Amino acid sequence: MVVVFGNPFISFAVTLWTLASVLPVSAGRFEDAEAAVNIGDYATALPLLGTLADQDNTYAERLLGIMYIKGRGVPQDYAMGMRWMRIAANKGLADAQNEVGILFQRGWGVERNEAEAVKWFRLAADQGLVLAQNNLADTYALGLGVPQDFGEAFRWYHLAADQSSSYAENVIGIAYEHGLSVGQDYAEAFRWYRRAANKIYERPGDTWIHSPQYNIGAMYASGRGTAQDNVQALMWFTLAAAFGDTKPPGPLGIKLLNTSKYTALEQRDRLMALMTSAQITEAERLAREWRPHPIVTIERRAK
After folding, report:
1. What's this model's pTM, rounded to 2 decimal places?
2. Measured in Å, how far apart are the chain's first and last C-alpha atoms?
3. Mean pLDDT on 196-205
4. Fewest beta carbons less than 10 Å away: which of 256, 257, 287, 288?
């Protein structure tokens, strides 16, 4: 059955227009403009960017689009932001193509058009841009602008996961935990959650699904896919809360996946009530000492 939701999650809390993500170019003036933007010196940045844009500098055109979209140094103007972003996107810049897709998907500065958003996501995803691969995967997962197709969604999630996307790895873990397009397999879900949880999560504000730190904590707490371990569970719930997984789940997650209604803080407190002070102290120590240490590969079990 095709399930279509009117409130898509594609761009929830993603840093879609991070100023630092603009690719460097040889022109020193662009680097000067970018540095000025990063410190909030828009009076210096805007004239430099305007001159560069007049010279067909694609990166300056994209950055001007960002400034209008975010209202940095200029009044916020989505239509003007789209204008500049389209110029850069039409020249083949993957970051700009992805952002044009977001603008169409949200209806910012242009009439909302989910099918047009998919077109731009695909152009950027075909160039290997991880953000676009995840956004394209999301459209297939929810049937936004394309027929719902979990198989195609997870093809793109896997491509993003191959580039170490913690969001994609987390979604793949959810697929195995809930049996979406794959056989339900708690051990496989745990392995994907572990791979994502050992990194800084790239979408900490998403609420349609919990963070991988939360998800792996829940598996330790219940003993699904791994040995039950309250100390490990408390460590991961503590980290999930520290990384921002502190809001109730959104209605999309509840409807699609029956996402747990408890926040990481609530899970932490519920778990602590079942533990000794020594166990709590150990879990808190593990959380304090945790450092990102990506697990690059997933060992697949023989079937």
Report:
1. 0.83
2. 29
3. 88
4. 288
